[in-house]
Write a sequence for this structure.
């Protein structure tokens, strides 16, 4: 529980660091979240799927068995962080917040009103070349009507890189698909399955400490 609390705290600090973030355009909203309006808010982490009845529990068990048969490991975002990284991230964000607000509130449009990626490229080496399944929100590099993309970012909370600062590099996954994927919305909640690499990728939106070569994409069901 301590680990999850630290990660949620870091996500909150990320959003706070960009205090004048643009409100989410509901026309592009991702699938339902646990917020009161049933729409994800900027900074919302991908929620845990909840089994509400025996049928859903049975389906989850069948899915887990199928994953094991394919040699796929289902992981959460905290598993991408090496030992001690949560504490390092919390300290880095506290330092950043102290620096940003040392001169008073940040004015919208000022030089300080920027999305800064804080964190490290430290990875869990044992995950290199591992077949995994991980949930997250899509962040495409470009988007338009009937857009089909083959490269995008996967992030753990809604609005990252678009309405809020990027997560740390080791909480950002660069996704590559051999076959283009058609997105319904700009930010979608999905499951990605494929081979994960501890391979750094740089982009204008954010840098990633991990890369995944996609084999399967599924809509995330809350």
């Amino acid at each position: 529980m301590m680990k999850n609390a630290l990660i949620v705290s870091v996500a909150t600090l990320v959003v706070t660091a960009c205090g004048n973030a643009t409100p989410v355009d509901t026309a592009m909203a991702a699938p339902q979240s646990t917020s009161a309006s049933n729409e994800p808010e900027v900074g919302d982490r991908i929620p845990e799927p909840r089994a509400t009845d025996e049928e859903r529990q049975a389906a989850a068990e069948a899915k887990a068995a199928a994953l094991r048969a394919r040699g796929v490991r289902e992981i959460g975002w905290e598993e991408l962080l090496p030992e001690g990284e949560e504490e390092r991230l919390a300290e880095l964000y506290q330092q950043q917040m102290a620096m940003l607000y040392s001169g008073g509130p940040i004015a919208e449009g000022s030089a300080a009103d920027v999305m800064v990626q804080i964190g490290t490229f430290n990875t869990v080496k044992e995950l290199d070349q591992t077949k995994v399944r991980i949930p997250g929100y899509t962040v495409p590099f470009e988007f338009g009507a009937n857009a089909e993309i083959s490269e995008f970012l996967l992030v753990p909370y809604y609005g990252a890189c678009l309405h809020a600062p990027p997560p740390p590099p080791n909480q950002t996954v660069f996704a590559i698909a051999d076959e283009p994927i058609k997105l319904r919305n700009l930010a979608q909640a999905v499951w990605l399955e494929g081979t994960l690499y501890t391979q750094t990728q740089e982009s204008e939106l954010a840098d990633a400490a991990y890369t995944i070569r996609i084999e399967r994409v599924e809509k995330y069901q809350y």
The first strand starts at residue 73 and ends at 74. DSSP finds three helices and six strands in the chain.
